[in-house]
Amino acid sequence: MAPKIMLLITLSVASAVLVSTASPPFQERKAIVVLKGPGQVSGNVTFIQSNRGGPVTITGVVSGLTEGPHGFHVHEKGDVTNGCISTGSHFNPQGNKHGGPNDETRHAGDLGNIQADNTGVAQFSFSDPLISLVGAHNILGRAVVVHADTDDMGRGGFTDSLTTGHAGSRVACGVIGIL
Q: What is the CATH number of the domain that holds 100?
């Protein structure tokens, strides 16, 4: 009888330890950025992460663009005191070369291009598995930048293709905050 009681006590203690050290359930996280530029470009983008370690869904509308694709990136600094130039480089915690959103090697902030229609409006919704609203790839407090030109995904052969995607000037930006 005593061995059974000891086994039950041991199992009870082990269960209590496992329950007390388990991570709290992940609550859906949301963020927003309001984009503004020196010209007519403006917009809003939301970020939603439903699962710890899961992808972030990015949904937005940007207006005032020229028709066509525009580089769309998370930059390392949430500083817009000198306009979009003070946001620094692409968010790149692992020191990788620039790439496209589906590339194995890329900056965490490389989100590819958004496509503006003939009225200058880009409406988009996509998911990204690398950025996060928690942990090492957390984008909260960083900036989103919309560029004037197409991001070549690091394949353009220009001197800046492997750092910026040769995406051109920064036409709008904003700091990512909690929603």
A: 2.60.40.200
